[in-house]
From TrEMBL:
InterPro entries linked: MFS, MFS_dom, MFS_trans_sf, MFS_Transporters
Keyword tRNA-binding: no
Entry annotated with the keyword Membrane: yes
One example GO MF annotation: transmembrane transporter activity
Annotated Gene Ontology cellular component terms: plasma membrane
Localisation: Cell membrane
PROSITE patterns: MFS
Topological category with respect to the lipid bilayer: Multi-pass membrane protein
Protein name: MFS transporter
Sorted UniProt keywords: Cell membrane, Membrane, Transmembrane, Transmembrane helix, Transport
Length: 395
């Protein structure tokens, strides 16, 4: 019974910690317009502040993503929690664009380190529930961070500090508790060599990684747009100035994604991929129609449909890849997967911010959405090919 209780508490701790990191990552989203009003920066600078987080996260995945395979899981989790605590302090005292960028850089590196090690530790702890938690927790975390911070910004005092104080307290508690976890991998040599920037993709997983890439790119590019420019888009298209809108847009996308993951958890990976590739373009078309007609209800309905596609595609990708890695390959494989995911998360959004300055946010949104629709349809056609279907079904 003690062993069962310990196993359950470890799972809960890992899930909540992963959720916390992703919640912190979207906490600034509903605050961006407040930062803009206070610090007077453009939409292009806004996407730069957003993008440096993702680039720093990528740097962590490329360098320390496999470190826990060599040093053990607990020390790396603790280091990530410590770095994110420092990032929260930077946010609390941020009074310039430079401070915001510094906070996002530190937060990105901490989140990249945490994403890889927590994902691998969840798989070590429970091969059945681990993939499900790895898929659901990030989306729920993004939703909680965006919506929770939006609520605090709208109704609580100190909108630019309170959320970060609460997150800081949570990370301090997690830093203390992490040492109670059982260590799931043995220490082995090669830690310094593993810091060389590289993608540790097991040979047997490479083909599948390429197969899920088009849909994965489309879903994460949509997530990046929502985390950076969607609040500004809603304000431009509808005139709404509520602090809740920024968080609600992210929450609508990610909560439906998480619910879809839960509903599809026992379905084959190939079915999840096909459903994601079918729903995502439908949702994107509805979103674009909502923007064109300045209809907030249609925009959010399209977001819900796209969120279902996001969740299905995310689950299908993770469940297709996870069985292909050995225990000491898992952190490396998840790092590679998240490198590709976060490149799709930040680069298109950064480009959109630049284009919005030259062509306007509405025109940029139409072009951005069209490209994602093409990618999703291509992914659907690829998933219907007999060879792809057999490979995915085997997973």
């Amino acid at each position: 019974m003690n062993s069962v209780a310990s196993h359950r508490s470890s799972l809960w701790f890992l899930a909540i910690t992963l959720l916390s990191f992703l919640a912190a990552s979207t906490a600034p989203t509903p605050l961006y317009h407040l930062y803009q009003d206070q610090l007077h920066f453009s939409a292009a600078m806004l996407t730069l502040i957003f993008a440096v987080y993702a680039f720093s996260l990528l740097a962590a995945l490329l360098t320390v993503g496999s470190l826990s395979d060599h040093l053990g899981r607990k020390p790396v989790i603790f280091a990530a929690v410590l770095l994110n605590s420092l990032a929260m302090l930077l946010f609390i005292y941020a009074d310039s664009v430079a401070w915001l960028i510094s906070a996002r850089v530190l937060q990105g590196f901490a989140t990249g380190m945490a994403t890889a090690v927590l994902s691998a530790t969840l798989l070590d702890t429970d091969r059945q529930q681990g993939p499900l938690i790895n898929s659901v927790a990030p989306l729920l975390g993004m939703a909680l961070g965006g919506l929770g911070c939006g609520l605090l910004a709208e109704f609580a005092p100190a909108p630019l500090q309170l959320t970060y104080w609460l997150l800081l307290a949570l990370f301090v508690l997690q830093g203390v508790y992490v040492w109670r976890l059982p260590e799931s991998v043995s220490r082995q040599g090669g830690a310094l060599a593993s810091l060389r920037p590289t993608l540790h993709v097991p040979v047997q997983a490479r083909s599948m990684l390429w197969r899920v890439l088009p849909l994965n790119t489309a879903t994460w590019a949509l997530g990046g747009f929502y985390a950076s420019l969607a609040p500004s888009l809603v304000r431009t298209a509808t005139g709404s100035t509520s602090n809740l809108i920024g968080g609600a847009t992210v929450a609508a996308l990610t909560v439906t994604g998480a619910l879809m993951i839960f509903m599809m958890r026992n379905r084959p990976a190939a079915q999840a991929l096909r459903l994601g590739a079918s729903l995502l373009p439908v949702g994107l078309i509805l979103i674009l129609l909502g923007v064109h007609g300045a209809s907030l209800p249609l925009f959010f309905f399209g977001t819900l449909v796209a969120g279902c596609g996001f969740g299905s595609g995310f689950l299908g990708a993770v469940r297709s890849l996870v069985p292909l890695a050995l225990p000491h390959e898992r952190a490396g494989l998840m790092s590679a997967y998240y490198v590709l995911s976060y490149l799709a998360f930040c680069l298109p959004a950064l480009l959109a911010g630049y284009l919005a300055r030259n062509f306007g946010l509405l025109a940029t949104t139409y072009g951005y959405g069209t490209v994602l629709i093409v990618l999703a349809v291509a992914a659907l056609l690829l998933s219907l090919r007999p060879q792809a279907g057999r490979v995915c079904s085997a997973s």
